[in-house]
Amino acid sequence: MIFDCHTHWGDCFQKRDGHDPTRWLEMFDGHGVTHAVVLPFAGLLDGGKIRVDNDDVLAVCSKSGGRMIPFCTVNSWFADEAITEFERCLASGFRGIKFHPWLQGQPVNSAGMDAICERAGAAGVPVIFHDGTPPYSLPSQMALLARRHPRTQFILGHCGLLEHWREAAEALNAAENLWGCLCGPHAAGVAHLVEHCDRTRLLWGSDTGFNFADAIGYRLELLDAVGIDDALSRAILVENPTRLLKIEESRR
Fold first, then answer.
1. Helix H segments across 30-161?
2. pTM of the predicted model as reported, rounded to 2 decimal places
């Protein structure tokens, strides 16, 4: 069992496959990946496409036999509409919410974002952020948000990417409800995060879905390059994500 905690149902897959996940799942099968958190794509680029994109994500995930775990997005600038859409998504079976503050132009220090994060905490679903891109998407900003909402679980979607992984490590150590997805740093960055952060809050992701390129093998090879042992590998790839996403609980 391997959980990929950062993928997108991108425009290329929507145009080619509609809501059929067959070829998507075959790609993951080739690497032994059994489950994937599936994030929106078009809704991150265009606020007018949020509802349709959320519906597309849910439709394809519903045909995956539980292997694809849907996350939605909303526009925090319009708080009332955002909460309404979030409530609709929660009622439909979404398991979390995604923000790309830099791309969406949604700062994390707003009343609308606070309201959505509080609702996520009440619903028991995590909030994943793109991070590693100034000025809206730095790991330290997510840490401050996490400290303001201690009952909500937050995820650094990229652990700082290629330049801000040291800051990501500091952010993870500053907020106990902040998790880090190893989906962006190079091998030295991954090694630093594994060495200096709480290993029970580390996840793994490939960022697959923007195009047809296969990033899964490369991201898995980074873990091998760092030389983590079997116990830590199992924690990052299986135990931590199942605990965060309450997969084991939902199957009882």
1. 42-45, 50-61, 79-92, 101-104, 111-123, 139-148
2. 0.95
